[in-house]
Write a structure and sequence with these properties.
With 230 residues, the protein is an alpha+beta fold. A hairpin with a 2-residue loop joins β4 and β5. The longest helix is centred in the C-terminal third of the chain and has 55 residues.
């Protein structure tokens, strides 16, 4: 592996997850991969959640078009690589017949070599790093080895980004839950003061109002608090 390739790979370790969301990280991964793998013309990253594939990042239109065809038709190298966590190399697109129709579509997009490396991110999310070349046979053994090495780095980056994204979402949900609890407690206090009732009785009043109005309990409580404040 050349010094230049090693330098490009090291860029993955400098991606700051806190400064970008998951798609932003994957955009950086795709861009770095395009520079790292000899013969790469366009690169994309496929993610599959709940059996629904989508292209989370791409360096160009050709990659997007080829990926989209695979998703719409349910077959292609990127889907197989993601499903089996394996490497699939297509040396000559025109001579490929494993996925009927794919070779014609890829050829029309100007792609004549393809390399997909599965990215096992976690149980709920799998994916593939897809590398497309303009010339048949452009990905030799060294390029495949580099792509697989790169995919190992990319999988870690993707997993960390996914974990960060999930953690942020969970934190936001917890913050909302805490805010909801606070406003409900405020509303209970107001009802207790007005009706001279117990906390359980005040909560029952809020619950009945929520059911009768078909509104969320938090929204009913917020209305009670807002009414007093105004």
């Amino acid at each position: 592996m050349s010094e230049q390739s090693l330098g490009v790979l090291s860029e993955l370790g400098r991606i700051c997850l806190g400064e970008s969301d998951l798609e932003g990280v994957l955009e950086q991964v795709a861009t770095i991969a395009k520079r790292a793998v000899p013969g790469a013309h366009e690169v994309s990253v496929t993610l599959i959640r709940a059996d629904r594939p989508h292209t989370a990042a791409a360096t160009g239109q050709a990659a997007l078009l080829i990926d989209k065809w695979q998703y719409e038709n349910g077959r292609g190298p990127c889907l197989d690589a993601a499903a089996t966590h394996s490497t699939i190399c297509v040396g000559d697109v025109a001579a490929e017949h494993r996925w009927p129709g794919w070779q014609d579509h890829a050829g029309e997009a100007g792609v004549h070599s393809a390399l997909s490396v599965g990215l096992p991110i976690q149980e709920q999310v799998v994916g593939a790093l897809n590398i497309y070349g303009l010339t048949a046979g452009v990905f030799d053994e060294d390029a495949v080895t580099l792509a697989e090495t790169f995919a190992g780095y990319a999988a870690i980056a993707c997993a960390n980004a996914h974990l960060y994204d999930t953690t942020v979402t969970l934190a936001q949900q917890m913050q909302l839950a805490m805010e909801s609890r606070a406003v409900i407690e405020q509303a209970k206090g107001i009802i207790m003061s007005q009706r001279r009732c117990t906390p359980d009785e005040a909560f029952a009043v809020l619950s009945r109002a929520s059911q009768d109005a078909n509104r969320k309990l938090r929204d009913v409580a917020a209305s009670v608090v807002s009414h007093i404040q105004h």
